[in-house]
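Per your request, structure below.
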């Protein structure tokens, strides 16, 4: 599933601006991710909530219950459009898993937008921490991650991706040949994939990737993206963040 990122235009510039205006309308509901920089989320991001101590992991489900009605109320139209477009691309039924968080927003204000390759280099593995209702039916080998930019800085934006698959790292470890991600990353080709506002980008979260920096940031620039993931469960796909 998606050996390389796939991008399809699903929103107009006017629709993107309307979404951004609503995101700002809900400023009181933003959660600051980094206390030293204006980087926020709107919604419940599993990769953040499950990074806290195990005793606090239940916060993800509590936060999802708190934010999902808000996201449905203010972004119900774009969420349904997103669901239908994913359904078209995956050629199977796509559903929002009610126990999990709906797709939500990453929000970088001017000072937080990366201009150096300092963002985390990672695989998307947060599905390993979720309580799936029917875990035996989940296809863990073909995850999908997606990003829908609705505002990008003057220097644009995108993703860096390396030709390094998560299963290869696992295989080396099982053979007793552990390598650090940094060591393996240095031996692989890096490709930059540019984003466009309103363009839905889908990829396998199992290839090593990173938010790409931009060369220049102007005062007032923002980077706002709608984020989420999906896993196949039986004959349908379950979407979460």
């Amino acid at each position: 599933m998606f050996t390389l990122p796939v991008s399809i235009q699903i929103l107009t510039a006017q629709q993107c601006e309307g979404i951004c205006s609503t995101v700002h309308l809900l400023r009181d509901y933003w959660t600051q991710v980094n206390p030293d920089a204006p980087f926020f989320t709107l919604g419940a991001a599993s990769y953040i909530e499950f990074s806290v101590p195990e005793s606090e992991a239940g916060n993800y489900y509590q936060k999802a219950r708190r934010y999902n009605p808000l996201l449905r109320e203010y972004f119900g139209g774009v969420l349904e459009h997103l669901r239908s477009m994913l359904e078209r691309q995956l050629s199977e039924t796509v559903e929002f898993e009610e126990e999990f968080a709906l797709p939500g927003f990453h929000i970088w204000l001017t000072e937080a937008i990366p201009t150096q390759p300092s963002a985390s280099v990672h695989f998307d593995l947060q599905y390993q921490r979720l309580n799936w209702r029917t875990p035996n039916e989940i296809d863990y080998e073909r995850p999908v991650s997606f990003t829908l930019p609705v505002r990008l800085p003057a220097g644009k934006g995108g993703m860096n991706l390396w030709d390094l698959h998560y299963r290869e790292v696992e295989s080396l470890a099982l053979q007793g040949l552990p390598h650090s991600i940094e060591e393996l990353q240095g031996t692989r080709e890096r490709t930059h994939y540019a984003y466009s506002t309103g363009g839905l980008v889908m990829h396998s979260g199992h290839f090593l990737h990173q938010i790409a920096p931009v060369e220049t940031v102007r005062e007032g620039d923002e980077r706002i993206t709608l984020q989420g993931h999906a896993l196949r469960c039986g004959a349908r796909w379950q979407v979460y963040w």
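Residues 91 and 153 are 33 Å apart (CA to CA).

Regards,
D.
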